[in-house]
């Protein structure tokens, strides 16, 4: 509302200044304008009418000029005061608008707060379990790699439960997750599918140390997203 008022005041001041400039230009260029008007009258065969008008202005011109000058002086004086009034009004409105916005900022505090603090250290219990998983996957024993994946999947189940997702098993819980609520949903699904293969096939499932680390890293992304480790 205040912005519209300021814009309107600026437009009024601009119109007044423009009108004054136009009047000054007309007075200064009147001889040329008069000659141009005479040419137009002659072109339409109205030379006599132009002579009559010119005679009228010659008779009453000095009086009209005197009145016009007086009026001009009055208009300039009034316009200056009006322009000064609007200029002060604009400055006052801008300052009041700044004051209002500062009050709104103090009252409503429009800054968006994050859902969790950036310096959260994570869950100490899960962090300890994660350290054991890392020890397993760092081993040279393939059975330890499988154990690491199994334990990481159990952690995933606990995290999903803590986030409020219900269901019979991790698969059911992951189906209830909206992708926009969990950026690492694809990683969680892929890691869980590998865990199922490890659980069902056991040692028959081919698993290299590189693949084991890749799966554990996918679990890690999920846990880090929610600051659980």
Helical residues, percent: over 70%
Number of E strands: 0
Strand content: under 5%
How does the overall form come out from the CA principal axes? rod-shaped
Structural write-up:
The chain is mainly α. The protein has two domains: about 1-110; about 125-225, no CATH class. Helix content is about 80%, strand content about 0%. It has eight helices and no strands. Helix 4 (about 125-140) runs antiparallel to helix 8 and helix 7 (about 185-200) crosses helix 8. The longest helix is centred in the middle third of the chain and has 62 residues, at about 45-110. It is rod-shaped, with a radius of gyration of 43 Å.
Compose a concise summary of this entry.
This protein has 229 residues and is an all-alpha fold. It has helices at 2-28, 30-43, 47-108, 124-138, 142-162, 170-175, 185-201, 209-225.
Notable characteristics:
0% strand; single chain; mainly alpha
Describe how the helices and strands are arranged.
Blueprint: H1 2-28, H2 30-43, H3 47-108, H4 124-138, H5 142-162, H6 170-175, H7 185-201, H8 209-225
Helix pairs in contact: 1-3, 4-5, 4-8, 5-7, 5-8, 7-8
């Amino acid at each position: 509302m205040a912005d519209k008022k300021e814009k309107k005041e600026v437009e009024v001041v601009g119109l007044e200044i423009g009108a004054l400039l136009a009047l000054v230009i007309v007075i200064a260029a009147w001889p040329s304008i008069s000659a141009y008007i005479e040419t137009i009258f002659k072109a339409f065969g109205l030379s006599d009418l132009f002579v009559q008008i010119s005679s009228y202005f010659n008779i009453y011109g000095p009086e009209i000029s005197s009145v016009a000058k007086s009026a001009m002086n009055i208009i300039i004086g009034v316009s200056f005061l009006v322009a000064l009034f609007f200029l002060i009004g604009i400055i006052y409105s801008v300052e009041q608008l700044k004051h209002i916005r500062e009050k709104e900022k103090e009252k409503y505090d429009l800054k968006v707060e994050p859902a969790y603090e950036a310096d959260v250290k994570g869950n100490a219990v899960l962090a300890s379990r994660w350290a054991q998983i890392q020890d397993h996957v760092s081993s040279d024993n393939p059975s330890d790699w499988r154990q690491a994946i199994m334990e990481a999947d159990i952690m995933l189940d606990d995290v999903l439960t803590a986030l409020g997702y219900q269901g019979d098993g991790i698969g059911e819980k992951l189906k209830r997750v909206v992708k926009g609520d969990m950026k690492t949903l694809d990683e969680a699904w892929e890691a869980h599918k590998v865990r199922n293969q490890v659980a069902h096939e056991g040692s028959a499932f081919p698993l290299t140390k590189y693949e084991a680390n890749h799966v554990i890293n996918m679990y890690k992304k999920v846990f880090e997203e929610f600051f659980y480790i």
